[in-house]
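Notebook entry, structure prediction.
Reason for the run: the old model in the group folder had no record of what sequence produced it. Starting over properly, with the input documented here first.
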Amino acid sequence: MKPVSARLLSQQLASPQFKDPADVVSWFGAMQAQDYRAMRWAVAMRTSKPSYKAFEEAFNEGEIIRAHLFRGTWQLVPTDDYPWMVVLCHDKATAVLDGWTKSLGFTYSGREKERILTIIEDTVSKHGEVTEDIIGQALVEGGIPEDKLLYNHQLRMAELEGLVCSGSLGPRNTYRLVRDRIPTKSTFSREESLCLLARKYFRSHGPATLDDFVWWSGLTLGECRKGIETLGDELVKERWKGRDFLIHRDARSRGVRSGNLLLLPAYDEYLIGYKSREIVLHPDNAHHAHNNFGIFKSVVAWNGEIVGNWKPSSKDGGVSVFKETVSIPEQALEKACNIYHAAQKKGKT
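New structure, fully documented this time:
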């Protein structure tokens, strides 16, 4: 097994198979979307013709949704999958969210929670699409104490209840009612949903381990095992350096070329999608890519290995290589920067 080459193909970072950004998100199931600018490039670079405009159209037309779901973080998910995903992640994500609130010395009674959700629903219904500020003002006017940390919790609570999701794309978050944007409801059993999620994860992230899947999904170990078991022979087990990895039986094995330079955005699935990242990032260099508080940086991958950082705002990429044995050819860097800037021009900045 060649795990680096296999991941480049699975992650659509080598020989991407899709033209439509919505198809990319559907392939992954869920993609980290912590940063507004980074998420657009994360999807666009995985299409055969990277374009911010194509991403914006898919998002604004409702083919892609942004919401706090798995692990309680911002993620892009396909509209068709949202109904069963929000049900699947609800209990675990809500428990984590409530635990965080309790750590602040605050808890909600059932009646208080219901009142908060009603205010949010009525406000969004009245305006159709609203910013966070308008929702916050309505909560204060409704007698809910003003607290930015708790306010963040209240919005996430509404998302996990399947009440609100993202509105139009923009530098400021907007919200719409789920029932207006996604009129359908989930018809899958929990077992079927676990199977679907496991399939999407291992086909887009493989080779990966059980621990990687548990980390990425935020679900329990038992549920993740169940999802893997239901896939049966769809997954193939490979032993590599003393650990068991799973890869989907339909995974591609051809399409990776040497001399491949990738300018990966912060919070990209190539790193954040795994609990253990040493396959592509040496542990001694991990601090260059992310800190211990969950902040991920823009990184450079050379032949699949994370070797440096870059600055998306820089015309020439602002690349700095932290692996001393690597020297990136100027031609490869220029080509990567041109693709990145061309994608930006095909859409709003």
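Summary: The chain has two domains: 1-65+189-349, 80-181.
The old model has been moved to the deprecated folder.
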